[in-house]
Design goal:
This protein is 69% helix and 0% strand. It is mainly α and 201 residues long. Helix 1 packs antiparallel against helix 2 and helix 3 runs antiparallel to helix 6.
Length: 201
Amino acid sequence: MASQDPRWSGVLRFAPLLMVPMLVLSIVTLACSIAYVRTFDGRPLDENRVRYRGVKPPTTAMLAFYGCTAPFLTLLYAPSILFLHLRSLLSPLVALLTSLLVWLGWTTQLAFWTNCEEVSEDMSGQQPSCPQYALSLRRDFESLPARKVRFALGWVIWAGLLIFVAASAAALFKGKRSSKHERKMSKMEDYPTHSEVEPLP
């Protein structure tokens, strides 16, 4: 059910409801990322696939940070937006700023996944931004269906958040324009009408 908040009027009142599919997709993506962590946690590295010798195997925290950060943030973010919207407490400015931050987080997350898992292995190995443990585990993870599902859903979430960023910006602009119009009408009402002007003695 859409909120009756006048700040989200017209078709824009349905924009925060994008968080419903975003929530579902983030749960699935997070599950795929957890599968990544559980599969490779404690597995020794293949030193033939890393640039530097002496690279230590990743800890559970490192694997979780690499695979689960953006999905986990979305899992917290989407219900918060829905709650505020249904309570008519969601400010377009807050929605714009927070959605932009989460979208940038997904942009960074997908950049790592693309760089480390999708481009050719030779190119990945030349990128300093790609963690060495991700290069070592890449070939083993490529055979898991969870990798393709996680990557595809990540881009869907990225696109959905971008739409919500645009909708929040539109709601903010619409609200400012409405406020400006109301102030203008208020000033016009302050001027006395002809009937209110007292005739000169």
